[in-house]
Amino acid sequence: MVPSPSSPTRPPPPRRPRMNSKDIPRTYSGLYGYGNDLLPFELARNSNTEWVANAGWQLLLTYISVIFMFLLVLLAFFPWNLVWTAVHTIHFFAGMVYMHWIKGSPNFYEQGEMNAMTFWEQLQSTQGTANAQRALLVVPTLLCYAACHFANYDFEISVWNIVLWAVAVLCKLPFMNGVRVLGINRTTGIDDDLKVK
C-alpha cells in the first residue's frame, strides 16, 4: 500500500545505546534518577511543594488577603500602632513553624526520603519556585517596614520587629539550607552524623 501524499510518514527512530535497567539508579520507592543524585528527581515529584510551583498569582493574592484579614481582626484588640506588629509577630511564628520546623511530606509513597527536610528546604530544592521564594522573602520585609512605620519608629517596637525580620530572612538564605543551629530541630536517626559542639 502506497501512502497518500496527505498522510505524513514517521522517520525511523534514532539508534541509541541501550542501558540495562539494573544500572539506572533508583530510590527506595523505585523512582528513577540520574547519576547518583536521586534527590532532585524526588523533589520534582514532591506533592508537598508542587502546589506552590503551580499556583501563580492566585496563591500570592490569597496569602496577602489572609494577612489583611488578620489585620482587620486584630484591630478589635490592639491600637492601630500595634496592629502591624501583632500581624508581623503572628506571621513570623506561623511561618517558622510551618516552613522551618515541621519536617517531611504528607505523601507517604515516597518512603521517607523527605523526612529530614523542612518545607523551605524542599521548596529551595524544587525547580520553578523562585518567584514563590522571592514573595516569601519580600512579605516579611514589608510587614516589618509597616510595623515600624505605623508605630512611628518607636525604639522597642522597631527592635522587636527588626529582630523578627532578621531571624525570618536569615532562615531563608541559601547557606542555611539543612543547617540545624545548636542541634535545634535535629532529627534523631537522620541528623546523627552532625556533631553538636
UniProtKB/TrEMBL annotation:
Residues 1-12 have a biased composition (Pro residues). It comes from Cyclophora tenuis (Marine diatom). It is a multi-pass membrane protein. The chain crosses the membrane at residues 55-77, 83-101, 159-176. This is ORM1-like protein 3. The keyword Transport does not apply. It is found in: Membrane. Residues 1-24 are annotated as: Disordered. GO terms for cellular component: endoplasmic reticulum membrane. Keywords: Membrane, Transmembrane, Transmembrane helix. It holds the Pfam family ORMDL.
